[in-house]
Amino acid sequence: PEAIAHLLGFVLKEGEAVLFLCTQPPSSRRRALRPTARLADHDGDAGDGGDGGNGDGNDGDNGATETNLMRFYDGHIEKYMNRPHGERDQHDQDGNTIAVINFDEMPYPEFWRRHDVVTFSALPQYAILSGNCWQMASGSTWCYLRQKITPVWWDWRIPTKDGTSYYYQKLMLNVPFGGGSTVSDCVPSSFISGDNASGSIREE
Question: Are 38 and 126 in contact (CB under 8 A)?
């Protein structure tokens, strides 16, 4: 689109940054591979593959000194599921508590509208001074409250065309999962409640 705009002589204007959120089922997601790493560097951590069967499959064989491991970078879904547990105080610029944030009950889109996830060294100064930053459940990264709400978007789906994927997306966007919420994971079966007789995503 940018090339066509330039050819036609249109002046492009920079719009507001928008964050894309993946809502694909685990079997259809794409994730970025990390470079090949030594097994010892990860201390046997086999949980880095996230959901959808993308884990290492480490069988605990300590005889191998170096292995080609399938390591994936965390995406927005994995970072959301690793959010802090429970309630945290939100402060104003003077450090006074003005609201309580319940991460366990915060849906996937709302988390990313209001927060970002970075390493401690990359935390903005305003977040540190106000106390509006919290360590993630893994302990390796931090999330902080954005100064401005960030727009988010996701793939447009309709029930007549996309079927189960449409209903799965609705659950992902509206039902908190992972972290300290009652839905432990984002695989389709995790969203099925005990009173769902058919066990279908659509009924849920």
Answer: no
Cα–Cα separations (whole angstroms), residue 121 to 117, 124, 128: 12, 9, 11
From residue 129, how far is each of 9, 103, 117 by CA, in Å? 46, 21, 17
Q: Which residue is associated with the tokens 């009950």? A: 105
Contact call for residues 150 and 112 (beta carbons, < 8 A): yes
Closest to 23 measured CA to CA, from 200, 162, 183, 184 = 162
Count of H helices and E strands in the chain? 6, 7
Alpha-carbon gap, residue 196 to 199, rounded angstroms: 5
CA distances from 132 to 35, 118, 128, 169 (A): 33, 13, 7, 30
| Distance from chain centroid for Cα 191 | 17
Count CA within 13 A, CB hemisphere, residue 44: 6
Condensed to tens digits (0 to 9), the pLDDT of residues 69-104 reads 557 788 999 999 999 999 999 999 888 999 999 999
Could you give the CA distance from residue 162 to residue 156 in angstroms, rounded to a whole number?
10
Taking the C-alpha atoms of residue 73 and residue 178, their distance in angstroms, rounded to an integer, is 18
CA of residue 108 relative to chain centroid, distance = 7
Torsion sign over Cα 145, 19, 25, 55? negative
| Confidence (pTM) | 0.74
Contact 74, 38 (CB under 8 A): no
